[in-house]
Amino acid sequence: QVQLVESGGGLVQAGGSLRLSCAASGRTFSSYAMGWFRQAPGKEREFVAAISWSGGSTSYADSVKGRFTISRDNAKNTVYLQMNILNPEDTAVYYCAADSRPRTAVAGTKEFLYDYWGQGTQVTVSS
User: Fold this and answer.
1) For position 92, what pLDDT does the model report?
2) Longest pairwise C-alpha distance within the chain
3) CA distances for 105 relative to 16, 31, 55, 85, angstroms
4) DSSP letter string over 28-57?
5) What dihedral angle (degrees, nearest 10) is formed by the CA atoms of 114, 40, 90, 45?
6) Which of 47, 69, 82, 113 is most buried per CB count within 10 Å?
7) Alpha carbon distance 40, 27 (integer Å)
8) What is the mean pLDDT of each run of 10 residues along the chain (127 residues)?
C-alpha cells in the first residue's frame, strides 16, 4: 500500500508560481513512476506531468510544457511540481499518483496506469 499526500496548493495571481509536493509512504516509492494530474471544474481529469522511478525520464502535457517542472527526491519519498507563469486555465484540483509497476523505463501519461492516488490539492489562479 502507498499513501500519497499533496500539499502546496493555494491562490495565486496570474503570472505567479507555486510548488506542489506529494509525500509518499512506503519503502518502494523509489521504484515507482509518479504523475501529476488535474481536474478543473466541469472537466475530466487530465494528465499534467510524469517522472520515471529514477527521475531520468519526464513527460509533460503540451499545455504546461516550458512552465511546469516535475522532480523527485527519493530519499525524502517526495515528488514535486514546480509551476511557473500560472494562468487562470491552470485552476484545478491537482492530484499526485503512483504507478506501482516497478522500475518502468518511461512514466506513463494515462490515468489507468496509476493505481495509487492522493486526495488532491486546490490551485486557483486569479486573473
Assistant:
1) 98
2) 41
3) 33, 10, 10, 30
4) TGGGSEEEEEEE-TTS--EEEEEE-TTSS-
5) 20
6) 47
7) 32
8) 95 98 89 97 97 95 98 96 98 97 90 96 97
